[in-house]
Write a structure and sequence with these properties.
globular, single chain, Cytochrome Bc1 Complex, Chain D, domain 2, mainly alpha, two-stranded antiparallel sheet, 3% strand, binds heme C, 2 domains
Length: 385
């Protein structure tokens, strides 16, 4: 199926209403033809859906920063209850509609797809339930509480206009309409504009500068960056734009991030305390052979989505690329490295999970200017208005 066409058709006519995506209820005359995606846009930025009220999806997925968390002070996002932090770095909701359902691909002999860093949600509808009920995020105690909020909230009229007058009468049905609306919104072109400089370059309407071109060459070269083997950057044979991910899983050996505020959560929220270990796909599949593996993210909008890695260990792109380059040989950039001896290479902290470590990266032998070029290239993947 042509997913891009499907996304396009879902979104017809949405643009006008998106402009009016505020908390004030829509004019009654505008409600007659309200679509699920339009209601989804309203709910996505509705802070009355958390418990207590105050946190919307958009607080951790801000349209101004590629639908991810604009809060740069923390590696992971704070929930609606002050001081509560999840264990993972917020993902961009952009291009999430294109992530396939979690499945085993016999040809590649790999598990691919699934939403969240660990693939545990099968659909955007299923995914939306996660943050609403997560005590570290929107913290609702039950679906009943959420539906009560919908009934009393600013978007009740739009909700009924889209799904029927009785749409909020029964809890399970109303909750299903709500997740369907959020998912429909996330399937609109707002979340998949394919408008980066690199897209224009592929279309022949923009040129890359010298540094970006060198970065692209390193990215594609199997003997140098070898990035494209996991983050493919060429259009498909059928002409679909590149997604910069195979959607497969790997353990790049990202260290435990001790500053992660999740470790300080009370025992009820983090039973393992300081010993908490993020098993990633291993937990989803209940298989230790996949421990420490996370879904390869798209690199679209990567210039706008710091910090990097599933636990937000890396504050900048250059720092993360230095890690991929020198994980196995050490680097002068390691946080604990003595600043007095700039020439000394220090070992990176141990991977959180050592047994499944991927060896396609770790000793790439790239120079500092190679890294600068790679960063320049990666920044061409940011969507532009
Ligand atoms: C407190 C911050 C926070 C809030 C609020 C929040 N999210 Fe997220 N979102 C995250 C984090 C963190 C992840 C990654 C979690 C993981 O992998 O376990 C994520 C992951 C996602 C993903 C998966 C993207 C992918 O590539 O797999 C989608 C889609 C998403 N969120 C949509 C939503 C929607 C819709 C809402 C509102 C109902 C919402 N989020 C509310 C922080 C948040
Ligand atoms: C073996 C497959 C593989 C290769 C090769 C690879 N990556 Fe990745 N990449 C991944 C996976 C998996 C992650 C997520 C790892 C995690 O967070 O635990 C990732 C994460 C990233 C991120 C951070 C994304 C985010 O949203 O936090 C960037 C940037 C990145 N890769 C760029 C590159 C570049 C540039 C290269 C080449 C030098 C490269 N990758 C090579 C699989 C790969």
């Amino acid at each position: 199926m042509d997913v891009h066409a499907a996304i396009g058709s879902l979104a017809l006519g949405l643009a006008g209403v998106l402009g009016a995506c505020t908390q004030s209820p829509p004019e009654p005359s505008a409600l007659a033809s309200t679509t699920p995606a339009q209601v989804g846009a309203l709910l996505f930025s509705d802070p009355s859906l958390s418990e207590p009220v105050g946190q919307a999806c958009a607080d951790c997925h801000d349209p101004r920063v590629a639908f991810r968390d604009p809060e740069a002070d923390h590696s992971t996002s704070m929930g609606v209850v002050a001081g509560r932090f999840g264990s993972r770095n917020s993902q961009s909701a952009m291009y999430a509609a294109l992530v396939p359902t979690l499945h085993y691909d016999p040809e590649a002999a790999q598990t691919v797809g699934g939403l969240f860093w660990d693939g545990r949600a099968d659909s955007l509808e299923d995914q939306a339930n996660g943050p609403l009920m997560n005590p570290l995020e929107m913290a609702n105690p039950s679906t009943q509480v959420v539906v009560d909020k919908l009934r009393l909230g600013p978007n009740a009229a739009a909700f009924r206009a889209a799904f029927g007058d009785d749409a909020l009468d029964e809890v399970d049905g109303a909750y299903a309409h709500m997740t369907a609306a959020l998912a429909a919104y996330e399937r609109t072109p707002t979340f998949a504009p394919f408008s980066s400089k690199y897209d224009h370059y592929l279309a022949g309407t923009a040129a890359l500068n010298a540094s970006e071109k060198r970065g692209l060459a390193i990215f594609e070269d199997p003997a140098r960056g070898n990035c494209a083997s996991c983050h493919p950057n060429r259009p498909s044979a059928a002409g679909a734009p590149p997604m910069f991910t195979t959607y497969a899983y790997a353990n790049l050996g990202i260290p435990t991030y001790a500053n992660n505020l999740f470790y300080e959560q009370p025992q009820a929220l983090n039973p393992d305390g300081a010993a908490y270990l993020d098993r990633g796909l291993g937990r989803t599949l209940d298989d230790v052979r996949e421990d420490g593996e996370f879904r390869t993210p798209t690199l679209r909008n990567i210039g706008r989505t710091a910090p990097y890695g599933h636990n937000g260990y890396f504050a900048s792109l250059a720092y993360f690329l230095d890690f991929l380059n020198t994980r196995d040989t050490g680097s002068t950039e390691v946080g604990t490295c003595s600043r007095a001896k700039a020439e000394v290479r220090c070992a990176w902290p141990a991977p959180e999970v050592a047994a499944t470590l991927d060896h396609h990266v770790g000793d790439l032998k790239l120079s500092e200017s190679d890294i600068d070029d790679l960063v320049a290239f990666l920044e061409t993947l940011d969507d532009v208005e």
